Amino acid sequence: VGKDILRFDPDKGNYVPSGAKADEAVVRILKKKDVAERLKLLHESPSPQAQFLWAIFRDVFQYAAVHLASIARTARDVDLALRWGFGWSTGPFEVWQAAGWSQVAEWIEQDIAAKKALSDTPLPKWVFEGKVKDAGGVHTPQGSYSPSSDTFLPRSDLPIYRRQVLRPTLLGEKAPTGATAGTTFFEDDSVRLWSLDSEVLILSIKTKMHAIGPGVTAGIDMAVDEAEKNYAGVVIWSADEPFSVGADLQGMMPLFASGGIDALEVVEKRLQDAMLRLRYAGVPTIAAVSGMALGGGCELALACTRRVAHLESYMGLVEVGVGLVPGAGGLTFGARRAAEERVVAPETPLLQFLKKYFMNAAMANVSKSAFEAKQMGYLLPSDPVVFNVHELLGAAIREAKTMFEAGYRAPFKVRGFPVAGRPGAATIMAQLVNLRDGGFISAHDFHLGKTIAEVMCGGEVEAGTLVDEAWMLALERKAFVGLLKHPKSQERIVGMMTDGKPVRN
Question: How far separated are the first and last CA of the chain, in Å rounded?
Answer without folding.
Answer: 26
